[in-house]
Structure formats: C-alpha cells, structure tokens
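Hi team, as promised in this morning's meeting, here are the two structures we talked about. I've kept the exact order from the run log so nobody has to guess. The first one is mostly here for context; it's the second one we should focus on when we meet again. Sequence first, then the predicted structure tokens.
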Amino acid sequence: MSSVNIIAMITAKPGKLEEVLAAFKANVPAVQAEQGCIEYNAVIDMEGVGGFQTKIGENSFAVIEKWENIDALMAHATSAHMKAYGAKTKDMLESRVIHVLSPA
C-alpha cells in the first residue's frame, strides 16, 4: 500500500485566522504522535517571492500531510482530537477543501 498525501486548504472567516492557527498548532503534537503520520504542518504564503507565486490568501493556510497508508489517514480523520479540533474551529471557518493524493 502506498503513502497518502494531503493538501488541505483552509480559509478562516475574516479576523479568525490567528485563532484557527492557534487551535491547529495546539493539535499538532497529538497528530504527529499518531501511528502512520509522516508529516503534518500548516503553511502560509511566503513574502518576497517573485512574480510566479499564486498566493492562497490572507485568511488562508494550507495543511501539508503525508501518511504511511490510507488506513493511517482514516484513523486520523476519525480520531478524538481531530473531532475536537473540528468542533472548536467549525464556526471560524469559511471553507475547508481537502485534496487526497497518491504518488504519480
């Protein structure tokens, strides 16, 4: 079974980005301790990049994830700490788009 890559695009409601990111960062240690987690990090637009960059936006961040396999991802998605994070942030989010990807 091959690894699973995730790019989750999160857009917070105006004025809520820092609060959502704080909740995300508080949850990172629990996620990184999960069996099968290879990578789990939030990223934001980098400043000072040349004209080829397409920014994700001032109220947005991406979550870059890599899991050993689909079973590890599914266990993550249904974990108690992810349910709690989702409940804590749901009213602060404008959108959440999750791309589940396999190696080409």
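And here is the second protein, the one for discussion:
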Amino acid sequence: MTTASTQQWFKSSYSGGSGTECVECARGADGMLVQDSKRDGGPVVVVRAKAWRAFIDALVPAET
C-alpha cells in the first residue's frame, strides 16, 4: 500500500468548520485510509474496500 504521506486526503463534508472535529480520508490500494486532520503524520486507520462499502451502504440506504 502507498504510504499515507503520499495520498491525496479529503475532508469529510460533515466536519465542522471550526477545525475542531475533522476526519480526512484517502483512497488506498486496498481500501480507504482515515486520519485525524489535526494530527498531521499521526496514526492512520486502514479500512478494507469491502468493509468501507458496507459502512457507506449502512449510512446511505439504497433508494427503492
């Protein structure tokens, strides 16, 4: 997997504008990377593609 420092990170659209509660995500080779935007170079959580899809599907139910 590509190192976290070389990824293109994007902030959650639901994060507050004050900069106090923000997560960033980046696409990785095998899934998504998630980190705290206030901790540059801090720990990164790797969420495999299948688990990420299940997470997104649970948040946004498919239209019927």
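Starting points for discussion:
Residues 49-59 form the longest helix (11 residues).
The mean pLDDT is 81.
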